[in-house]
Amino acid sequence: MGKDQTVLFHSTVFGPIHSRRLGVSLGINLMPDDGKVCSFDCLYCEAGFNSQGKGTTGLPAREKVKQDLESKLKEMSAANKTLNVITFSGNGEPTLHPEFPDIVTDVMDLRNKYYPEAKVSVLTNSTRIFDNQVADTLKKVDNNILKLDSAIDSTMRLIDRPQSKEFTVEKVVDGLKQFAGTGIIQTMILRGEHNGMRIDNSTNEEINALIEAYKKIQPKEVMIYSLDRSTPEEHLIKVEKEELDRIAETIKAAGIKVSSC
Question: Rounded distance, CA 181 to CA 215, Å?
Fold first, then answer.
């Protein structure tokens, strides 16, 4: 059974928070502030399962995102506060927003105006990289962070629970090749069980399959990480830093730039 875990972010712009991977981060939530919309239904999602529903507020309009972000950036700039990154994340998959390309343009313009040294990052589950507009937009941001949690279909389906039956490892790895040299692949390493089924993507078989996928994709970098907060599936186990570092060494030995946190 899962926890009754619900959405994390109740506004369009949130933070700043300290990200262990990105630094001081201001978040942008393009999903409802009282529900979740995602093309995956990951067992480890901090925002809970999709079954909680889409809420009532709907997706924020482009103009609202722009106004809310500018207000926050003005406030932070006036107070001489540090900002390392503006990150699209939130209560679901940001690239599902129909105005995603235009919103990214607005965000980059505001970044240039108030915090030109800050990076713009998008955390995406890679389900929308087959849309040319989305893919072109992802190529424009500083940190295009793309999910690949397993290179074995059955494991990917168990952990990430994609809503589309057509979404396969083979298809996504092929699609990720378009970001060779620019994309950052993010992989969650974890163990546990769900509905009596064992989960473990830290095995030699899993890591070797990931290495082969990374070689095909040729990303700028790979980030591996494990659980940091509570998860809706209660029977998941964090892989500790020492073991993550060992896995990272194996990946590095294959000629792939990798970080673990």
Answer: 11
Question: Which residue type, as a one-letter code, is found at position 202?
Answer: S
Up-side HSE of residue 106: CA atoms within 13 Å toward CB? 18
CA distance 128 to 232: 24
Nearest 5°: the CA angle 126, 67, 106 is: 45
pTM over 0.90: yes
139-150: pLDDT as tens digits? 999 999 999 999
Closest CA to 34 of 14, 67, 58, 5: 58
Closest CA to 39 of 180, 172, 236, 222: 172
123 close to 62: Cβ distance less than 8 angstroms: no
Q: Which residues of the chain have pLDDT under 50?
A: 1
